[in-house]
Amino acid sequence: MSARLTTPPKHGHKSLLYSEVVDDLDNLKADIAVLGIPYGSAYTIEEVSNDQSNAPTAIRQASDRAVRALERYDFDIGGPLLMNKPIRMVDCGDVINDPRDLGMSYRNAEAAVRKILKAGALPIILGGDHGIPIPVLRAYDDQEGPITLVHIDAHLDWRNEVNGVTDGYSSPIRRISEMDHVKDIFQIGIRAQGSARQEEVDVAYAYGANIITAYELHDVGMDAVLERIPAGGRYYITIDADGMDPSVMPAVNGPALGGVTYHQARKLIHGLVNKGRVVGMDLVEITPAKDVNRISSIAACRLFVNLIGATIKAGYFDR
Predict the structure, then answer these.
(1) Spatial distance between the Cα atoms of 237 and 3, rounded to a whole number of angstroms
(2) Would you call 210 helix, strand, or coil by DSSP?
(3) Is the pLDDT of residue 1 over 60?
(4) How much is the pTM?
(5) Is the bond preceding 145 in cis, omega lying within 30 degrees of 0?
(6) Are the C-beta atoms of 269 and 229 separated by less than 8 Å?
(7) Fewer beta carbons within 10 Å, N or C terminal of the chain?
């Protein structure tokens, strides 16, 4: 048996949405597998352990506010969470990191996602900062067919480096664009200022990134945006909490007004599930200490509820 890659979830709710806790990824049997990745690739020593590393636990703790009981009907998804089907949803805990080896988090994250994919399970990823999709998407390099990246964020995230770090939270889309198994990139909700300069904007457009500002989204609607995303694709969804409107997810370091609404994000998830196949989803950059009545963590749970319910209803796990 190989070395452990994860540690069990912490206090309170031991898992996301009452799922079974497992830590043996070598013998994983699951349809849906939750994985927490608390630690990214820090730009400064102060960022090594920041409040976003507490987000996987905070999101799990919101489980009973997002889903009161598994058997209850949920009007967002048209049935109970698991649709009265024999779905096995597990929580693999949080990726192990070592303060003496800060690269361990990414290595273990990639290895853990590879094992989840090998088991045929759908990964649901709890961040952590927005660097974590880099090791997650690396793990898809041996999967069938190209991936279409669908990205909700206020910020572009195309920096090549910050402080010499090339795989931090300002660079995930730049690094993902370099992966041969990723094809189309759709960035939704972009607005205000982030780390991008004109040169990053130019590089993104030169690659062919489809950049849909929040204002274009509000003007044309999410249905029109979904029409632009090719049907029949294999979609990976990455959601930065600051891409959502602060009224939905206030617990962020960089709140930007005019963001993606819960209704729009829900429509995007259901639309992608039904026009192709969603192969994974992460939600990152919640800063729990800045939350208001836990609404950010509850909203994160609710977005995962919509993904889970929609994929089950669409027959992703039918045998």
Answers:
(1) 29
(2) strand
(3) no
(4) 0.96
(5) no
(6) no
(7) C
